[in-house]
Sequence to fold (227 residues):
Amino acid sequence: ILNVEQSPQSLHVQEGDSTNFTCSFPSSNFYALHWYRWETAKSPEALFVMTLNGDEKKKGRISATLNTKEGYSYLYIKGSQPEDSATYLCAFIYGGATNKLIFGTGTLLAVQP
Amino acid sequence: DAGVIQSPRHEVTEMGQEVTLRCKPISGHDYLFWYRQTMMRGLELLIYFNNNVPIDDSGMPEDRFSAKMPNASFSTLKIQPSEPRDSAVYFCASSRTKGTGELFFGEGSRLTVL
Fold:
């Protein structure tokens, strides 16, 4: 059974703090790794799609790295703001007959003003 | 672009009733996915289509669930008969390309089965 693990499950930080979360996935037969941001009462929105080992992507204060050999990705938020409060989901696709996007259960980030 | 459109947004029904959820993907997207969100399991993939053809329905819980995509602009997820344990938020998503294509999600249909 393919499993995507995210840690921590939740995180409370103060405005201005920098933070990071981890997504772990099976390292064999990797195809792609997605990061999504999911605000309460809304639907998930894509942040990054990463495919190559060593990939680093950045969007404003948010960045992500990918290590396919060891099976992990980090998401970093620099100088957290209250509007960054959301659940951050990673999703994994492995190469093979299926095109399933397997989601982790997410990291819930709360940024206190 | 209007985005992925789902209906109804909320549905409350009684056990045993038939439920039909609807989805209109983004025009030009050739993949369509149905997900279910629950507290216990997070986002679970139920089924996905490519060019209107079901590719993988192994996530469909049981025979009470069925999904169709009669054309490129419309899909339905049907539950018959519905049970209280089916209560969840059902999301539809579409994407343009296989694998690396990001998913665009609808706003979800919140189903409550009494």
In short: The radius of gyration of chain A is 14 Å. Chain A has a mean pLDDT of 91.
